[in-house]
């Protein structure tokens, strides 16, 4: 049913009948013959807010929203009807401004809900800028007097130059053979970054001879001082004694997965003929880390008390852990961290199993070990016996597994010939080292993890499904990593190999915002805030110290 609307004699805007003043110009209203289709208010209209149904014709907007009062209702469009139906509350105590078919609160500058939303957006934007800020510094830069320099982003060390070599091979050459790219590095090229131009950089390459994996450093000297030089004075890789006459394949394929280079190549192809390829690759890492931050905020939204707490705990998770440092590096771990948290958010918050499966498949392509983190998320629809969701989740991951096997067959002449063999160690030693090592222990580098352990019980009680799935994935991956000989990840900051699961490990922290201790115990809240501040300080030192913090604790650089 409908009744006639009225129009303002001053501004000409139409609005529902029964209002005493214009919602736009506050002019006293008189009945008019100008019609506007309005649905009668339900019986609850005598309460603080009345629900009005307005039908508008013409172009529609998918972002129309109502922001006034607690009686807010989402807009709904009837299928098969050209009219766009908008529902919004009208408060009898405070007018609501209608702009065409839009419903926006008047006096936005003093509206509490608007101010809260604005504060959340500003806080999230600041966190994003802080995650980008480490790109402004690099160090140590060859030839520079200071350990840190303001220059175009440069890679550090470890696996970064070798990942950049593989990216250059894909982007410039269109293949995976890195032999000519390493030769270009030795002759002064930037295939491994400006820092390693003309340097005696070892090759991260493996061969298979008679089903035996032979790493490059078994055949060649790793000490650059022992390398020979060509007529131009460039270093030339020199074989070890007793290996001079050993026949090796002409091609050299990296022991790192080519998936990272292939995933980045669509973005980096525009920079292949310039010196901006290296900074662009680092920028891609930072941007994906920022995407991971927003996905993390989406994931912890049910845990926190309000949207501002979501951003605060997300900021602490990313700025108060090694994620900030690795967010400006060219390692595989920050990419895996972003892909995995995005997958968990897509599945558990939006039920988008195909999107989650594609993200998990990309993570498995980067490293096979990440399948353990993805497995609980893959088994969830199987447990519910949902065939459609199971197919959407499993198909991309299975395809990624077959693609890795095919790479092994094409590059190393064997389905099981992996690029790098797993070196088993003592899991007890590895687990204790990951937790408490002075130079790599994650609890000493990110004290906020202690707060996550504190809140685990409440997290498990209130969000049992999330707690079970995340705990299974993180636990299985931790057991595997602690069983490796180099459980920390080689020459790096903190424990590099556990970086992919850091967002999932810190997620329980957000439940503290609803706890009684947080809201009622001022001393406890102050202690938690101090721990968060200390963690962010450690993260800032690591993020802006670049390679100077490798194999060190941030405290060693502060004092």
Can you walk me through this structure?
This protein has 559 residues and is mainly α. It has a two-stranded antiparallel sheet. About 15% of the residues have low confidence. 46% of the residues lie in helices and 8% in strands. It has a domain of 100 residues. It is built from 21 helices and 14 strands. Helix 1 packs parallel to helix 7, helix 10 runs parallel beside helix 12 and helix 11 runs antiparallel to helix 17. Strand 11 and strand 12 form a beta hairpin.
**Helix share bin:** 40-55%
The computed structural class is: mainly alpha
Our estimate of the beta-strand percent is 5-15%
Give the strand line-up of the largest sheet.
1-4
Number of separate strands: 14
Low-confidence stretches: 32-115
Instruction: Determine the N-to-C terminus distance.
Output: 76 Å
**How many helices does DSSP assign?**
21
**If you compute it from the alpha carbons, what radius of gyration comes out, rounded to the nearest whole angstrom?**
29 Å
Topology of this structure?
Blueprint: E1 2-3, E2 6-7, E3 14-15, E4 38-39, E5 50-56, E6 84-90, E7 96-99, E8 102-105, H1 112-132, E9 137-138, E10 149-150, H2 160-173, H3 179-186, E11 206-209, E12 212-215, H4 216-219, E13 228-229, E14 235-236, H5 259-268, H6 277-300, H7 307-319, H8 323-326, H9 332-350, H10 353-366, H11 371-383, H12 387-412, H13 427-436, H14 442-445, H15 448-454, H16 456-462, H17 464-482, H18 502-506, H19 516-520, H20 522-545, H21 554-558
Helix pairs in contact: 1-6, 1-7, 2-5, 6-7, 6-9, 9-10, 10-12, 11-12, 11-17, 13-17, 16-17
